[in-house]
Design goal:
four-stranded antiparallel sheet; three-stranded antiparallel sheet; 30% strand; Aminopeptidase; 142 residues; alpha+beta
Length: 142
């Protein structure tokens, strides 16, 4: 299966092996999220995951609405072997589309930054006036 064909699934829960996969993504990115952080997104928001045929989670994104006027998109993580193949973009689009369908005001105010430090890489997504628009952010020099 091509990476672009990996299924993206909203998750209402993560199995122990899926939590381990999510934890591996966090460690690979040198982030500090814990299992409890994933549970907040599962309980109060939504987690999206891209799975391989073997069931391994190789990419994630999560949304956390704050009322109906603002939402946070976070946990946009992609395993190294699966980067630069469109998974983060697909996850962001899915999250934005779902937010727009349930709370257009929240979707219109969501501003997101990923942790990519590759010059010229897609590192952000913003939404204004209910329309999705890609934003190319360059990391600071040095």
């Amino acid at each position: 299966m091509a990476t672009s064909d990996l299924p993206l699934k909203p998750k209402s829960a993560l199995s122990p092996s899926e939590l381990a996969d999510a934890g591996a993504l966090v460690r690979e990115a040198n982030w500090n999220q814990l299992e409890a952080d994933w549970r907040i997104f599962l309980d109060l928001g939504r987690v999206y995951a891209a799975h391989t045929d073997a069931g391994r989670i190789v990419a994630t994104a999560a949304t956390l609405p704050h009322g109906d006027r603002f939402a946070w998109i976070s946990m946009v993580l992609v395993a190294g072997d699966y980067r630069r193949r469109g998974l983060a973009t697909r996850l962001m689009r899915r999250a934005m589309d779902d937010l727009a369908a349930t709370s257009p005001a929240a979707a219109a105010r969501s501003i997101v930054r990923s942790a990519s430090r590759t010059p010229g890489a897609f590192t952000g997504w913003s939404c204004a006036s209910g329309e999705r628009q890609a934003t190319l952010l360059r990391p600071p020099p040095g």
